[in-house]
Design a protein that fits this description.
heterodimer, A: mainly alpha, MetI-like fold, globular, B: alpha+beta, D-Maltodextrin-Binding Protein, domain 2, Dipeptide-binding Protein, domain 1, Dipeptide-binding Protein, domain 3, 3 domains, five-stranded mixed sheet, 16 helices, transport (chain A)
């Protein structure tokens, strides 16, 4: 019942966020120098040809009129045609979505599989040993290393030397899932480095915070085994900030995919958006950014729900009022 | 200090590892321009019994306002890809001589009349035989578009069917570049009957008489072609299918040739010659192009020092083409005038007026113009690596003459907005870009004729004399008279220095010697890296 009170408010704020994002991206794209007609028709074109092309896509109308028209169509699920391929944008994005989703999913898996154990280890060994220091160093380096630098380095090394995995030879997961996963392994690892580091650091801090709680001291006093305490008391309580971070990581993965897909020649939504930006393919950029915003908003929403489920002390209703 | 040597050694080892330097000579780079036969960097071994799929990686895809319609195709990659499905009336060979295409012969009745005799076995991929009406209609359809290539066709007065397999083209004035214009993909012969009745949509379909038919295309990702069962040379094809991957990132293309997932890869970066030196199965060749890099020296801004012709000429003279080529294109770019240096009859770039000036004369010229310490803005684009490098070298070369250059490297769209598509003067003093050089020495010079090339208005004023020289060069028949006109034209362009040709823009083609035996011409006019694809032989089934 609490969820029913809270959800409408969150949905309304989500719609407002999406609307705001759509206005921002529409204005940002239109304020970029150069336009689609110039790019596609090339320098040899004349003004008459460019104007004809603009008219054919409705770019001769006023900006507010263009925006409202686009918004109205988008609300009905019609994001228009890609100016470059002249195919429906939704179809173009849908055909690339599985690739980006798999890439982000693999990166998320690596993040959870490595980041959380690393953070727990660093947190439970915070005051002793080299292991904790090593974990801190690893997480600091991971956070500091931009993925485009790491990506270029990995592409160079794996293309220069025979290291067992090839770069650039992408296989679609929809045609061969196994080979698709293998071809996404390197990009997913590069994409996950920052996330692993951030997750490890957040987990470590959360674990350290939980370890000084009285109920942990009580568990120790009861003589419960260390592993049991960590699994049942520490981890569960430490997970809340990690879950919150997951929403941020989701956004990061979408943003990072733009770079990583480009560097590794992965034909997902990220590389498609970069191309669209180069070509001033307005409809694609608008739809792509709106999609990314929607994913982030939905992820945040789900994380809020999950947080309440993991720790009932966090009042869903209270969060809803605060929203 | 005891650790200094191990540390330095470690750093050196790491550097060698990262740069991939194995101590081997860059053999691939050194002999990359060596010909195996006159005019060819590679010649397919026709004795190989070949079948299978030809896999190539390209740098970018065709993106045109009219989709797959060849008539308005504007980029070399579009010409290359569409050229797999379409054929033209005439072809161009390794010496830039014209050879039979869909016309098995032609007569130049007079400088204004050409009669083309068509082959009788050409059939479109939809199964309908090509007719003389298709040829007439294709030229007319191209002229109707008003596209850049329709301008290159010159002053066509009429196209008539004068026999079952004969078409006569009449011109209103002599135009030597006609065959050069007819030899490129935008002048492809189309199934006109179907185009006119709407059963073939050129924007979405490719129905040509060429060797292959597209079966799938994912924009910016890939193309699939299969054999055209009606192709007149079907028995001689050594390829069953073509798979093209669009891979913008160069490192990924390098990886593909190294691991053999691609048999044939194109690069725009001379560094590829050395980067593939450690892959013995990869053959890397440097294909010379008629395309050339040029700088815009914007003359239309009255507040810029470049409004003064003396300053532009001095800046032009201060650019050392040989050094520019060495530092940016591994020495493979050839200095050129406005008639591309690799074409027959082209002017000698060493004879250009700017090349006769000493450093002292350049300095004096700038001083006379009151431009002793000036700052110029330069803008170029980033979708290829060379323009940015060229900008940096030019910056260094001009600095000793008191010319400071502020460089801005932007995306293509921003560059376009700076120099084209408006009435205002261009937004920068200098621009760096390149032009396609085509297959005739006068074709590209059209872009220096302000009567014909309106797109230059934001940075070029030109002159009636220059415009007339461009027209003269296109009208005069090949021979000494035309060569002399081209030399005058080159000098006029060089002195006016509003668009200054620098050096040719070679391409690098890498192929797997263990997988494919290709034919690659040493000089290319239309960026068609698949020009001899029908000769290619596969060493494995791909």
């Amino acid at each position: 019942m609490r969820l029913l009170h809270w959800l409408p408010g969150r949905l309304l704020s989500a719609i407002i966020v999406l609307l705001g994002a759509s206005i921002l991206i529409f204005a940002a794209v239109r304020s970029l120098p150069g336009d689609f007609a110039q790019i596609v028709l090339g320098p040899l074109s004349n003004e008459e040809q460019r104007e004809q092309l603009r008219q054919s896509f409705g770019f001769d109308r006023s900006l507010p009129e263009q925006y409202l028209l686009w918004l109205g169509n988008a609300a009905r699920g019609d994001f228009g045609l890609s100016l470059a391929s002249q195919q429906p944008v939704l179809d173009e994005l849908a055909s690339r979505l599985p690739v980006t989703a798999l890439l982000a999913g693999m990166a998320m898996l690596v993040t959870i599989a490595i980041g959380i154990p690393l953070g727990v280890y660093a947190g439970t060994h915070a005051s002793t040993g080299r292991g904790s220091a090593a974990a801190r160093i690893v997480s600091t380096i991971g956070i500091s290393f931009p993925e485009f630098v790491l990506g270029c380095l990995v592409v160079f090394l794996f293309s220069r030397f025979d290291l067992g995995l090839s770069v650039g030879a992408f296989t679609s997961p929809t045609t061969d899932f196994g080979r698709g996963v293998v071809s996404l392994l390197l990009p997913a690892l590069v994409l996950s480095v920052f996330c692993v580091a951030a997750t490890a650091r957040t987990t470590r801090d959360a674990v350290i915070g939980v370890l000084v709680e009285p109920h942990i001291a009580a568990s120790v006093a009861r003589g419960e085994p260390k592993g049991f305490i960590i699994r049942h008391h520490v981890l569960r309580n430490a997970l809340i900030p990690v879950l919150t971070l997951t929403a941020t990581i989701t956004a990061y993965l979408l943003g990072g995919a733009v770079i990583v897909e480009r560097v590794f020649n992965v034909p997902g939504i990220g590389s498609y958006l970069v191309l669209a930006l180069d070509r001033r393919d307005y409809t694609v950029i608008q739809a792509g950014v709106l999609l990314a915003t929607a994913v982030f908003v939905i992820a945040s929403l789900l994380i809020d729900v999950l947080t309440g489920l993991v720790d009932p002390r966090v009042s869903v209703a209270k969060k809803g009022r605060g929203a | 200090m005891r650790h200094a040597f191990p540390l330095i050694g470690g750093l050196a080892a790491a550097t060698l590892l990262l740069t991939g330097c194995t101590g081997e000579p860059a053999g691939n780079g050194d002999d990359a321009a060596a010909e195996v036969a006159p005019g060819f960097l590679a010649v397919a071994d026709e004795s190989i019994a070949s079948s299978g799929t030809f896999r190539a990686y390209l740098d970018y895809d065709t993106v045109e306002p009219n989709g797959l319609d060849p008539r308005t195709a504007d980029t070399a990659r579009s010409w290359t890809i569409m050229g797999l499905a379409y054929e033209t009336l005439v072809n161009i060979d390794e010496n830039f001589e014209f050879t039979p295409g869909l016309a098995e012969s032609w007569d130049e009745v007079s400088p204004t009349e050409y009669v083309f005799h068509l082959r009788d076995d050409a059939v479109f991929s939809n199964g309908r035989p090509m007719t003389a009406e298709d040829v007439k209609g294709s030229i007319e359809l191209l002229l109707e578009t008003g596209s850049a290539w329709s301008l290159q066709l010159g002053p066509i007065e009429s196209v008539e069917v004068t026999g079952d397999l004969e078409v006569t083209v009449k011109l209103s004035a002599p135009y030597t570049a006609l065959l050069g214009a007819l030899a490129n993909t935008p002048a492809a012969i189309l199934p006109v009957q179907e185009v006119r009745d709407g059963t073939v949509d050129l924007k979405t379909e490719m129905v040509g008489t060429g060797p292959f038919v597209p079966t799938a295309h994912v924009q910016d990702e890939s193309w699939s072609f299969e054999q055209n069962p009606h192709y007149h040379g079907l028995d001689e094809l050594g390829i069953d299918a073509v798979e093209l991957e669009i891979v913008p990132d160069e490192a990924n293309r390098l990886a593909a040739i190294r691991d053999g997932s691609a048999q044939y890869v194109f690069f725009n970066n001379a560094d590829a010659l050395d980067l593939l030196a450690g892959t013995p199965e990869a053959k890397v060749v440097n294909q010379q192009n008629t395309d050339f890099y040029y700088v815009i020296l914007n003359s239309t801004n009255p507040d810029s020092p470049l409004a003064d012709e003396r300053v532009r000429f001095a800046v032009n003279a201060a650019i050392d083409r040989a050094q520019l080529s060495d530092l940016t294109l591994a020495g493979h770019g050839l200095a050129t005038g406005v008639s591309p240096v690799s074409l027959p009859g082209a002017c000698d770039p060493e004879e250009l007026p700017s090349q006769q000036l000493s450093d002292e004369e350049i300095t004096k010229l700038l001083a006379d113009a009151g431009a002793e310490n000036i700052t110029l803005s330069l803008q170029t684009w980033n979708s290829e690596s060379a323009p940015g490098k060229i900008a940096q070298v030019i910056q260094q070369q001009l600095e000793p003459f008191g010319v400071t250059v502020d460089i801005e490297i932007v995306d293509d769209a921003t560059y376009g907005a700076t120099f084209y598509g408006s009435d205002e003067t261009a937004g920068a003093d200098i621009g760096v870009s390149w032009y396609a050089g085509y297959g005739d020495a006068a074709m590209v010079s059209r872009w220096w004729n302000t009567d014909q090339a309106g797109f230059t208005a934001r940075f070029m004023q030109g002159s009636p004399e220059l415009n007339q020289l461009v027209v003269d060069a296109s009208e005069e028949p090949a021979g000494e008279g035309r060569d002399a006109t081209l030399t005058k034209l080159c000098a006029a362009v060089d002195e006016g220095a509003e668009q200054v040709p620098l050096m040719t823009r070679p391409g690098v083609i890498a192929y797997r010697d263990d997988l494919i035996s290709p034919t690659i011409n040493s000089n290319e006019g239309y960026g068609d890296i698949f020009r001899y694809v029908t000769d290619f032989r596969l060493k494995s089934e791909g």
